[in-house]
Amino acid sequence: MPLLVDTGVLYALADRRDAWHTRVRRYLGGHAATLLAPVTILPEVAYLLRERIGPNAELAFVRSIAHGELSVEEVQLSDLSRAAELMDTYGDLGFVDTTVVAIAERLKVSSIATTDRRHFASVKPAHRDKFLLVP
User: Which residues, listed in sequence order, are joined to residue 71 by a DSSP beta bridge?
Assistant: First the structure.
């Protein structure tokens, strides 16, 4: 089963100065799962890479997607409806996080690779009691 990833994990992989970099690299190095990125996180990751590291980091990210090193999960209309429900229920969760949750629910994913413990730990997913947040 693929590992659903959030923005922070992909950013931490690229930025050696990020506080999560070592933890994320170790975790992902020990797991052979395909990384599955919701399409909604891609602009956020690209923006952070460009602004904080530089255009070459953003370009490397786009190339990694184009070469299939990262799988991308499209958002469906049902995901958008669920995201709106989640935004209404959890006022501090924005569009990107709620689409990650909606996609996780649709795919019946139990784990989310994220550095955002505060937001994802607060959510009660529809298909289980809580998400396993890794690393």
Answer: 36
Whole-model pTM over 0.90: yes
Q: What is the pLDDT of residues 72-87, one digit of tens each?
A: 999 999 999 999 999 9
- Superfamily for the 3-134 domain: 5'-nuclease (3.40.50.1010)
Q: Are 129 and 21 in contact (CB under 8 A)?
A: no
Among residues 51, 62, 52, which one has the least CA distance to residue 21?
52
> How many helices and strands in the chain, by DSSP H and E?
7, 5
Residue type at position 122:
S
Residue 62 in tokens: 């786009």
Q: What whole-number distance in Å separates Cα of residue 45 and Cα of residue 30?
A: 23
CA atoms within 13 A of residue 89's CA, in its CB half-sphere: 15
